[in-house]
Amino acid sequence: MDLYARSLGPLEFRRLCGGSNNEDGESESCVEIAQIPGESDAFALRDSKNPGVGPLRFTGAELRAAGMSAI
pLDDT below 50 — which residues of the chain? Predict the structure, then answer.
């Protein structure tokens, strides 16, 4: 399955946060994730601080293997 060949159209992203950006622990690292339309277990992932950059695309298995259990 080539997820980059699929047109995404408008997506409804939700924010996932965790970890810390700095040593004081006041700022969390966040990404935004959306289900890719027409795919049962595929997601678009983008930087929450720079959402204008195109999202990366992953299968659910790839994200779970990377430790993202909240998908």
Answer: none
- Distance of alpha carbon 35 from alpha carbon 16, whole angstroms: 13
Looking at the domain assignment, is residue 34 inside a domain? yes
Residue 32, in any domain of the structure: yes
**How far is Cα 11 from Cα 43, in angstroms, rounded to an integer?**
10
| Reported pTM | 0.81
- Residue 29 gets which letter from DSSP? E
Domain count, the chain: 1
What does the alpha-carbon distance between residue 38 and residue 44 come to, in Å, rounded to a whole number?
A: 12
DSSP, collapsed to helix, strand or coil, labels residue 46 as strand
